[in-house]
Task: inverse folding
């Protein structure tokens, strides 16, 4: 069993896989041969012999070209839209992602994001910049209505945080499959849900079906007292339309953690849109995420060797895109 | 039974007592005579005949001069430091405050304030101002240690919010009276508690014993990774020392909701201290607070008439100052 781990040069050190970390997670009984390289300094011979490739933000065409024996490719991210379609995967190889590892952190992020937006935090930070005392009292958040787009690990964490704060939650998902915990509508009913939402939270994968889903039309359906949060992927929201709505007071506020281009470019109009708070893609990531991701890999490597490859954890459906 | 309610001109409309609101709360069977006036347009005859005075931010010397029949003075605030000492009270009259009405809102404020500070929100808002992507991942807040100054209604709400987020809580109070819910130290042990705190939250009344309690010396005892929150009263913290510590990276962050002078003056150095977030005295106030305060008054007026004046709710101890 040859495992090839590739680190992306320049990425946040929190994502770097060290050989020691991999050895501490991959069962030593598997006697795996582990190679750890930077993306700009590959070991092409080791790549050619790899059974397993693990990385984040990697160049899948290059991987496919050199690593033709692969049986498993593991993404250290949950969002894998950049690798779609999966037609580059060697035939018979599986692709797994890291969905689920972000749920705890996402729940904590939502636990502050929702009542902070409700209290008017963007208004306060703007007033602080202008050395202005802008007092406006708000009641409690309990009883407000939150619509969450997506009900996977991330959307589930959003719903959990919201319910703990006393909000009513409605989920909008691809299938609309019922949940015992909340009302669920399929994506075709999004337009009917939006006018009832005090909060709209985007927590779904980026797929052809969700790209641009929250555009000018959807935003216009939200009440002017509503706030929008995006912890999913930037391109699901048309930020030009969102910023226009905020500037014209057609929305109460927004908190964006993900963007079309990251890092958010210095000249982006998003930075100083009134009522909009920016956090730099921190909603779902914690310093131990890479270790959590590799634990999924560790369990899957065992399954490969056990001959139970059909039961791989977090296998991505290339057609659905997650 | 004559009730005289005085509104403070220019105050937030949320605090204004209308005659209709008072009539809806004071039991009609009491056949109370209710007078509602602005502070700059008093009815001195009605004041002279008042049994009960209710107001917020009132001139107690003026009230004492004109209203010599008073049996009860009710403050619509919880903090009553401005009326101390209570030697102006007509002999035999009781003074009550509105402690307790702020607890729910305070709990919600703390529910966002703590994880937001933990995530580095002041850093993010500062970076946003500068159109700068400043990513730093943090883990979960659970297990961090919070020291709360005061364990009245407000401090209790802080402790409750913190425990729900998974923090360990230590309270520091005047008496150090034990609690089944957490460790409690008397104020003499503050210096020993500070070096162990990840968060220091000020939630006690302003008294001669607490004024300036969190000064340069106390702040120097906090770890450089600690954050400070003040939802009590401004003068409990020496903000000059606090801002110096933040500017020199001797503290991680701060969230101030109360100030020595409110509104915070435009030229205050607090506005642009790095790592410091300002909210405009909204942590504990909700639009329905005035109605909650008057409900305390309504119950107390009944007790006065029942002859159970010794059981008045929220009676202030003039010696303790709360």
Result:
């Amino acid at each position: 069993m040859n495992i090839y781990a590739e680190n992306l040069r320049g990425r946040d050190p929190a994502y770097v896989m060290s050989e020691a970390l991999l050895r501490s997670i991959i069962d030593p009984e598997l006697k795996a041969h582990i190679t750890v390289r930077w993306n700009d300094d590959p070991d092409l011979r080791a790549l050619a012999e790899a059974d397993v490739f693990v990385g984040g933000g990697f160049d899948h065409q290059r991987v496919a070209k050199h690593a033709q024996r692969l049986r498993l490719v593991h993404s250290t991210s949950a969002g894998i839209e950049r690798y779609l379609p999966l037609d580059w995967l060697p035939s018979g190889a599986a692709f797994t992602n890291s969905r689920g590892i972000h749920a705890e952190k996402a729940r904590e992020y939502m636990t502050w994001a929702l009542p902070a937006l409700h209290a008017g935090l963007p208004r306060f930070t703007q007033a602080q910049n202008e050395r202005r005392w802008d007092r406006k009292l708000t009641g409690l958040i309990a009883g407000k209505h939150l619509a969450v787009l997506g009900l996977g690990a991330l959307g589930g964490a959003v719903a959990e945080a919201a319910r703990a704060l006393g909000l009513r939650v409605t989920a909008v998902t691809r299938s609309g499959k019922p949940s015992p915990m909340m009302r669920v509508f399929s994506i075709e009913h999004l337009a009917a849900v939006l006018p009832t939402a005090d909060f709209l939270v985007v927590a779904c994968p980026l797929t052809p079906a969700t790209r641009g889903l929250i555009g000018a039309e959807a935003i216009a359906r939200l009440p002017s007292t509503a706030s929008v949060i995006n912890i999913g992927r930037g391109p699901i929201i048309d930020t030009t339309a969102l910023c226009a709505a905020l500037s014209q007071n057609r929305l109460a506020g927004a908190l964006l953690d993900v963007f079309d281009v990251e890092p958010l470019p210095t000249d982006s109009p998003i930075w100083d849109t009134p009522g909009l708070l920016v956090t730099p893609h921190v909603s779902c990531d914690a310093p131990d995420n890479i270790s959590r991701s590799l634990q999924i890999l560790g369990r899957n490597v065992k399954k490969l060797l056990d001959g139970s490859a059909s039961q791989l954890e977090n296998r991505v459906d290339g057609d659905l895109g997650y």
Observations:
- Chain A touches chain B through 51 residues (CB under 8 Å).
- Chain A has two domains: 2-101+286-311, 103-278.
